[in-house]
Amino acid sequence: MGSAIRLETVLAGGLWSVHADPNQLENVILNLGVNARDAMAEGGRLTIETQNAHLDERYAARHMGVPAGQYVLIAISDTGEGMPPEVVAKAFDPFFTTKAVGKGTGLGLSQVYGFVKQSGGHVKIYSEVGEGTTVKIYLPRFIGAAEDEVVTDVSDLPLGEEQEVVLVVDDEPAVRQFSCDALVELGYRVLEADGAVRALAMLEAQPEVSLLFTDIVMPETNGRKLADAARVLRPDLKVLYTTGYTRNAVVHNGVLDPGVELIGKPFTIEQLAAKVRQVLDS
């Protein structure tokens, strides 16, 4: 990795088993580590994290070919230069590379994609220019004999009340819509904004907002700066952050302070219900 790169691991206990080729998995992690190193020409932090995860029916419906269920998540994060959306969209294409001639084949991420699909899994890239990149690999939990998936009845979840108003802020329309739909289903009244300027105007016009639910990494003004400005207007405002990056990455990069309320993407409606209720009741 080189002396300018700090390597950090955050490995959860009690991880589920997966059914995958260990040698290929090792190569995938090494491949992603090398990509991360190359994106940090001036040095930085490379973080490898593991945890158990659940992708629900709503997530599966928005990602063709991804079965809902239990997965083991492996996340590789860097503090490098990041990628714009048009590069992220092509990142898994064979022979696509942003590296100089002779520096890369463009096969690295396509091989990662092939391994993950061969293993029945899912891979997702979160990246913003100037902020860094997180690659999340989801490998299906291996439990032997098939078990029926438990479908949660929304009425069994901690619900909101109509007078509790949540302002959802996210620059990605599809993600914002999913959050809004889930919160409405949970009984909250929901307002939405695509960025900080619109969100602050709505907070001034809507003093009944109980909770600001904001993405962290957004163009122009990030979620942290938005929350700081919002609390100048409303010192008592509750704030819940969300991000595709891992908690460890955003805290260590100085974007957020330790101990803030954060829910990672993708989240299930059960996780959202519990977290929103926890923040509002705190």
Automatic annotation (TrEMBL):
**Keywords on record:** Kinase, Phosphoprotein, Transferase
> Record's Pfam families?
HATPase_c, Response_reg
SMART domains tied to this protein = HATPase_c, REC
Q: Which CDD domains match?
A: HATPase_CckA-like
Q: What class of enzyme is it?
A: transferase
EC?
Answer: 2.7.13.3
Q: Under what name is this protein listed?
A: histidine kinase
Source organism per entry reads Asticcacaulis biprosthecium C19
